[in-house]
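Me: I'm a chemist; would you kindly supply a protein sequence with its structure tokens?

Assistant:
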Amino acid sequence: MQIPLSSRPQPPNLASTMSTYSRRDFAKLSAVTVAGATLLPVVGRLCAEEIPAKYSSKPNSKVAGVQIGINVPYSFGNPSMSGDDVLKNCVGLGLSAVELRAQPVETFLGAPADLLFPKKGLDTGATKDNAKQLAEWRKSVSLDRVADFRKKYETAGVLIEVIKVDNIFKMTDDELDYAFKLAKALGGRAISTEISTSATSDEEMKRVGSFADKHKFMVGYHGHTHTGPADWEKAFSFAKYNGANVDIGHFVAGFNDSPLPFIKEHHERITHVHIKDRMQQKHGGDNKPFGEGETPIKDVLHLLRDNKWNIQATIEFEYKVPEGSTRMAEIARAIKYCREALA
């Protein structure tokens, strides 16, 4: 039985940890406009440190019924960025929804940074010890303060619709229960995670799927160029609440084909789609600025719009920043492209 996203809990939200973008980044954004209005409502004074706790106007990136969002803090290029700084950047970009990694929330809740962001090159013993300590922290932490995190995002006008959970297949049973409770407390409607490609992938997705069914909460498995329809369909067969996070750029690069037929057939199991522009593998598979690759971004956005499907169009920024530009300016252009495609 398939679970329509429209029948799943609807999102609300909040924030927490590290670095932001320079004045130069935001100044460049001032040149980018959307539907006659600047993407940054307070451009020129929109450094993360300068945005007030209460915002004079809320962002709105729901266009023609399609919720445009962004994968953060990944797209901002700083995995340890705080929830506060993520929020400030999103408000500055005019984005009203996100796919948020769990780390900014866990940092807000007091998780030790060395456990969330361990040094590279740790030996097996140290890695296992870190994982054990983090599992113990997750087992003992109270989720009461998650409401504060969520409230800050909601007050600013940004919904945390999807929560990205890393290393989900290595989690203990207690940690899996924690992850679903955390996602619900944030107001999300789905967890996202990388699809399993291990030798025991079937058992891993059955196990996580059993927790998804237990909590009646969707898990969207994210695929790269090696992930195709058969992989997701197998995951669907394991649990009612197993779903797909379809990355349309990776799909095109991996299969030299359009993701539209798969999205049409399985839209009720799709939590969100990652929006990026890539070339087909036979043409190199490179990431490109929006509108310059071979990914049918406009067609996918129109499909979501015309069918009124509750599927977030989540920008995932991965192409090389052109010389003379900045990451934030390029993200603003990607948002503008999506807005204009839906106009």
Confidence is low (pLDDT under 50) at residues 1-55. The longest helix spans residues 124-140.
